[in-house]
Structures
1.
Amino acid sequence: MSYSPDLLKGQKALVTGSSSGIGEAVARHLAQAGASVVINYHSEKDEAENIVSAITSDGGEAIAIGANVAQEDEVKAMFEQMFQHFGTIDILVNNAGIQKDAAFVDMTLDQWNLVLSINLTGQFLCAREAAKEFLRRGVKPDVSCAAGKIICISSVHEVIPWAGHVNYASSKGGIDMFMKSIAQELAPQKIRVNSIAPGAIKTSINTAAWSTPEAEAQLLKLIPYHRVGIPDDIGKAAVWLASDDSDYVHGATLFVDGGMTLYPGFAHGG
Ligand code: BGC
């Protein structure tokens, strides 16, 4: 992938949960487009450091910062560390997310709370810190038309109900209203807020769904475009949403899902 290195030149980005999977791809793509990137990790310190090394040896700029996005004090400390190192923030990608699947009647309160606290409360805590800095700093026209950009990584399950995953689907449905409400509130201050809703993307969160030919064949029945996504698909979308090329896109959810949200069961029926 080659972007103009000027696309995000001088911009400082934080990608939560970027030590693997979709977050890693987003961080790498933002760096390729010229942004300086914080690789946030929870437990995968070595993996995060390896990504930093890869980005730096490519001529980019990155640092790794550990923080649990569900913990207010850790989030505040992460932003402080970022500001000490990079001075400010221009792009926040709220990516960190987990699944703790269980049948509804068997789901424990811990499973419910854990998923909601990382997937939804984590987005609130990080977006609030980023927005405060965007408001303090305002627009720098030589950097971007916007005072800042927030990209929430949601899921097709913000609209597709998901039996056996009610905590996850509820968190993603929550992200939809979270994103739109802060988009409405922050627009006058030139803060741009959008979501990306990935479909099935090959990462460790859903290995069971694509790692055998039988599983992949079942999964492809749900994807009209007949391809399972890869993290780069999301990385490219994130670069566009973070750049001034999408300056008039605000409060929108970009589904990157090969058509998973098109009710594929109705292609030959109904
Ligand atoms: C989930 C994956 C799932 C995909 C499509 C994602 O949000 O994390 O496990 O494969 O949605 O159902």
2.
Amino acid sequence: MLIKSAEFVMSNSDVAKCPKSRLPEYAFIGRSNVGKSSLINMLTGRKSLAKTSGKPGKTQLINHFLINKNWHLVDLPGYGYAKVSKSAKKVFQKFITQYFLLREQLVNAFILVDIRHKPQPIDLEFMEWLGENGIPFSIIFTKADKLKPNAILRHVEDYKTELLKTWEDIPIYFITSSSKDIGKYDILNYIEQLNGN
Ligand code: GTP
Ligand code: MG
């Protein structure tokens, strides 16, 4: 899929106020600073469509982007960031949870994990929660430019071993680097396939 247009639509913290259209939707979520907003910019080829930052906790709302006028891409706040106050965290968790449970047009959630780290309980628990609620997801390994090719393979294998403790099958996964433009078309083509065109 080629990206012909990518427009910011709206930000909000209430799933009831998200766009009413029934366009298929894809959400990007993961720990703070994992590279969600950077990945969205890589996918759309727009350097600053989604706001990125070296400091975790940049994205704080549900952000809808309209792509090629026929699907929505959604940038969500990171979970598991210790420096956000407890009450702010609760608010985040509530609207993120509501988003996943209530957003019927959501086709797939992409869970981003930093390829350098061992599987983190918070990510594994979130995947389990999605599974329990019947929400399809795939995994995106980010920041692959930070590891050598053999380390990438080793880290992915370790991740798969961990997943197989809970899951019968390994979810579809992608290896990406937003700074090196790696994995872009694998993800866009997968979305195109799910969109059925
Ligand atoms: P929050 O919105 O705070 O939850 O963060 P986020 O997950 O949206 O992360 P963001 O895209 O803002 O990136 C966080 C930091 O990681 C920034 O300093 C980015 O430049 C860096 N980063 C993101 N993707 C990559 C990548 O593929 N490679 C490298 N080397 N750095 C990356
Ligand atoms: Mg962000």
3.
Amino acid sequence: MTLKYEFPKGFWWGTATSGPQSEGSADVDGKSKTIWDHWFEIQPERFHNGVGPEHTSTFYSNYKEDIKLLKETGHNSFRTSIQWARLIPNGVGEVNPKAVEFYNNVIDALLEEGIMPIMNLFHFDMPMCMQEIGGWESREVVDAYAAFAKKCFELFGDRVKHWTTFNEPIVPVEGGYLYDFHYPNVIDGKRAAQVGFNTMLASAKAIEAYKALGQDGKIGIVLNLTPSYPRSTENAEDVKAAHIADLFFNRSFLDPSVKGEFPSDLVELLKENDVLPTYEANDLEIIKNNTIDFLGVNYYQPRRIKAKETEVNKDVFMPDWFFDNYEMPGRKMNPYRGWEIYEKGIYDICINLRDNYGNIEFYISENGMGVEGEEQYINAEGVIEDDYRIEFIKDHLAWLHKGIEEGANCRGYHLWTFIDCWSWTNSYKNRYGLIALDLATQKRTIKKSGRWFKELSEQGGF
Ligand code: BG6
């Protein structure tokens, strides 16, 4: 068969999930609480339908069957995360043998099925005991995280050859310290800047530990890139505003991760506003010397930006002092999640990485479409006919293909997600999986997209 879009040999086809969103068993076998378990205890009303982080799928107890489903849906690679609170329940010190056994079993089962594991080390799941001593505001936590990362490499690095230090490190900064959608619900740009810096330092320290062990794998980071488009490219104020949004939300982690340096204009802007984070003498050197081997790109939506028009409260420093979001007329929206769908964004990312980031090796580590009420698409055989998801993937892959043809160094495509999973405050509102989950019975049913994904992977394109 001739394929219109043929991807390179060995392309990674798969999905991503995370420990806290899929494992369940939140308080068994010695796992301690994360900030999510704690926040749900004190404010359950902040979670959609009052469904908290203990209601995930049951990957912890059902991983063997689930990994068979990975195979059935054509995966040759899969990302999940190791929960710090499960592996080292006190944040530092003693390792939980039950967790070691679990993650060993998962890794071995994946490899037995010929599925390459990509293990991530932090997916928003700060252990509560670490948050109690300051979370990412604390250098003690930075060092504890680096020690946790080193332990993971020692325990699992003989088989795991692709690691990522963080998933979307900007999100806990935005959610936890700017816009109140993660614990600890602080709204303070100065503290946010410190949290961002310390997270970047933690990533570099984990990379340093990995390199020191001399293992023969690769280490990277997963960033959610949101290309920033100005309302008008002819209006200098719009262009400047989009540039500043890009500095805050993309380049704050992208530049130090790939190039080892923060963008000088971001540093200047923080300095002028007296919110530059504090750091120690050799922190910048650690960041400089420990850049990534490969990048994971989560792409969901772009940012549409216009010059600041609305009034701002100047009491507390916020990125929003410098730009407004622009509701571009006619843009295509995912009505359920409220996110714009702009397929070409994935191509623009390819070209940006090719031209401005040394053509770094990357893969699409998340892309996906969250939909409410998918039950309405169930056919007579009980299968969800999610043609909209297949179209969504195809449209993005077509642009990704063009980026690769033009020289972008992209190694794979992972969809968010494998089995419908629990999601932060949205709980089960939006379903993203190739496989439907009945939360009450835990029954898994492959959706039409899951069957199609297998074909896509086996053919190497469509
Ligand atoms: C990414 C995260 O931001 O998007 C996932 O890495 C998350 O953890 C996914 O679930 C989808 O977002 P949401 O909020 O719709 O679940």
